[in-house]
From TrEMBL:
A GO biological process held by the record: lipid catabolic process
A GO term, aspect molecular function: hydrolase activity, acting on ester bonds
Entry similarity comment: Belongs to the 'GDSL' lipolytic enzyme family.
Name of the featured protein: GDSL esterase/lipase
Stored InterPro entries: GDSL, GDSL_Est/Lipase, SGNH_hydro_sf
Keywords: Hydrolase, Lipid degradation, Lipid metabolism, Signal
Signal peptide location: 1-28
Organismal lineage: Eukaryota, Viridiplantae, Streptophyta, Embryophyta, Tracheophyta
Organism (species): Brassica oleracea
Domain of life: Eukaryota
Length: 262
């Protein structure tokens, strides 16, 4: 419990300092305004939406061993908490935020629009693109007041599926082809963030992509042993290098706050 509390405190402090501009951090949740948390992206942030789009009546993420550390396999792709759960706890949001697709969910403190297998480009099966997630938020926007939305936190983590799929279907892509694809992905991401901003969102946390070539499933698929698959790492690096300037451009607006944790 101590380790978990420490992590929550650190993550929460970073968000308060960079997003909510509160200089005094004493304990988890203290000084954080009572606002909502909205998340968009893929399985890293999926609070259970995938289960509502899956053709499988008993998708694996709703069964043990998922959620085993909390004895609650509730559709999250984790043995317990996902990153937004820690942030929600710091923001004093009871039980975290619900999946937006869950009928009758209490959306008063926000919702998760993220869904596993989501991508920025393309048409993912039994999932949604980021643009579709944002439009789902737009269809529900009357649930919250404009002032509440402006004060709330929007977290986005997406892009993994785009680069996994590109690498799989273009194993011999040239450097120029890779650069062109990264540009397409990041330009669309910029557009989707802009759409959220136009809907009233002003506080964003958009983490950098992890070294995708070091994911266990990638190392297994490409049989790299203990080594990472560098072509995917290169794509993630190029993606991250483009994200900073995009967020800095939006952050020039005095009403906007953007954070991009690495």
């Amino acid at each position: 419990m101590a380790g978990k509390f420490s992590f929550v405190s650190v993550m929460g402090a970073l968000l308060v300092l960079t997003i909510f501009h509160d200089p005094i951090i004493v304990d988890a949740g203290q000084g954080v305004p009572e606002v909502a948390l909205f998340t968009f992206g893929d399985s890293y942030y999926d609070a259970g939406n995938k289960a509502f789009l899956s053709k499988n009546k008993n998708p694996p993420q709703t069964l043990w061993p998922y959620g085993k550390s909390r004895d609650d396999p509730n559709g999250k792709f984790s043995d317990g908490y996902i990153v937004p759960d820690f942030i929600a706890e710091f923001m004093s949001i009871p039980n975290g935020i619900p999946p937006a697709l869950k009928p009758g969910a209490n959306l008063s403190r926000g919702a998760s629009f993220a869904i596993a297998d989501a991508s920025i480009l393309g048409a993912p099966a039994e999932s949604m693109t980021l643009n579709q997630q944002v439009n789902k938020f737009r269809s529900m926007i009357s649930t919250w007041s404009d002032d509440y939305i402006e004060k709330s936190l929007f977290m986005i983590y997406i892009g993994t599926e785009d680069y996994l799929n590109f690498t799989k279907t273009n194993p011999t892509a040239t450097a120029s082809a890779q650069q062109a694809f990264v540009t397409s992905v990041t330009n669309k991401l910029k557009t989707d963030i802009g759409l959220l901003y136009s809907l009233g969102a002003s506080k964003f946390a958009v983490p950098m992509l992890a070294p995708l070539g070091c994911l266990p499933i990638v190392r297994q698929e490409y049989k790299t042993g203990n080594d990472c698959y560098e072509p995917l790492n290169d794509l993630a690096k190029q993606h991250n290098e483009k994200i900073g300037p995009i967020l800095n451009e939006y952050a020039k607006n005095p009403t906007a706050v953007f954070s991009s944790p690495s």
